[in-house]
Amino acid sequence: MKDGRMDEELEKSLKGLFDETTRTADDAALDRMLAAALEIPGRRRSLWQRLLAAWPRAGWIALPVAAVTALVLALGLPSHPEDGGTRGTPVAMLSTSASRSATNPGAGETGAVQGTDTEVAVVPADPLAALDTDIDPIEDDMALLDPPHMAFDNVDDSVWLAVYDEVLDGKISL
Amino acid sequence: MDGISSMDAGALPVDGEERGASLEKALVDAALQGDGGAFATLVKPHLQLLFRVAYRACGDASLAEDAVQETLAVAYQGLKRYRPGTSFRAYLASIAVKRAHTLLRSELRRGRYESGADTPAGGLSADTLLEADETMARIRDALADLPEKRRAAALLRLDAGLSYEEIARSLGISQGSARVHVHLAMKELRARLGDLLISRGKQHA
Asked: At B39, is the pLDDT very low, low, confident or very high (cuts 50, 70, 90)?
């Protein structure tokens, strides 16, 4: 009981401190944020542009190649270097089905982008579920790529990809 | 904007009320059908709260604004998984906390982040602003040193004002765990910010 009362008092003090140091957005900023919310279909297009800009040619080549790779992996053929196969799959093509194979990370697993040391982590698209995975893209200094289905219609929407920003900067070769 | 999307955002009912849940469901359904006005009606009452949480997490107004915008995008994408009547505020706030930290980390890694670079609010003296900035930075540092779930629980409780039930739902943990996370976070914050709490207590005595 005593602990409970102490907690209440501490919470009240901390809330007071937080309230005194909080910042609010002005109406113009709120309007901007709201406008962004109303333009979500536009965001989808800009993501396309962003990703395609990062992979100008390789992306188009990688899509069919990776689709075949995913099919091969789904059939259970060896794909890890140690098994005599290729390593990883282009980030854009990681899908739920592919992610369940040995070399392509599924939710809560990590992997690498083909031919690079770029780490990839897959976390559930549901932000609440994502909080429960062992992977912490923030602590691991990774960035969450926007849900891939926003950019690629053929990718399952149940996972998010967390990748280093270098991927978006086009510093990888697929 | 017409029909349900034209409803005044301020008329959005409190979570948990039956009528509120059905109205919220109607708005969610309309938003899922592509009604931007309905989505705006859903999120508008929570924008200031989202900004507050995001700003606390990253300490930069423009970054916080980005975090809120991304939160809205993520929230929209995940809207079909949201269950009306379970606290839309908690749903949004938990995303905002995560997005703000992700953006901050990203900016820090790129070396583009400058703490305290915001334009100060008018009407306050330079000393007052400096003191407020220092206090803000100390709170942010103390929060940053907490384990992730503990930090999220603290932000959701102290800044977003969520109930333990809402925090538990947001973090995917039990209510008991939510209480423990908040309790431990507050203890650690007291250890780090004790002098600020004492001086504040004296000022308000």
From this structure: confident
Residue B72 touches partner A, C-beta closer than 8 Å: yes
A38 chain-B contacts, CB cut-off 8 A: 36-37, 39-40
Whether ipTM > 0.90 holds is no
**Which segment, A86-100, A132-146, A158-172, B15-29, is predicted with the most confidence on average?**
B15-29
Q: Which of A10, A11, A17 to mutate to test the interface with B (most CBs of B within 10 A)?
A: A17
Identity of the residue in A11, A37, A143 whose CB atom sits nearest the CB atom of B106:
A143
Among B88, B101, B106, B197, most A C-beta atoms within 10 A, so best to mutate, is B106
Q: What is the 3-state secondary structure (H, E, C) of chain A?
A: CHHHHHHHHHHHHHHHHHHHCCCCCCHHHHHHHHHHHHCHHHHHHHHHHHHHHHCCCHHHHHHHHHHHHHHHHHCCCCCCHHHCCCCCCCHHHCCHHHHCCCCCCCCCCEEECCCCCCEEEEEECCHHHHCCCCCCCCCCCCEECCCHHHCCCCCCCCEEEEECHHHHCCCCCC
Q: Which is it for strands A119-124 and A143-144: parallel, antiparallel or unpaired?
A: unpaired
Domains of chain B listed by start with CATH number: 1-119 (1.10.1740.10), 124-205 (1.10.10.10)
* All structural domains of chain A with their residue ranges: 22-168
pTM of the model: 0.58
How close A66 gets to chain B, by Cα (Å)?
Answer: 25
Encode pLDDT of B43-75 as tens digits: 888 999 999 988 888 878 888 888 888 888 888
The mean per-residue pLDDT over the stretch A48-55 comes to 48
pLDDT of A106 above 50 = no
pLDDT of residue B186: 92
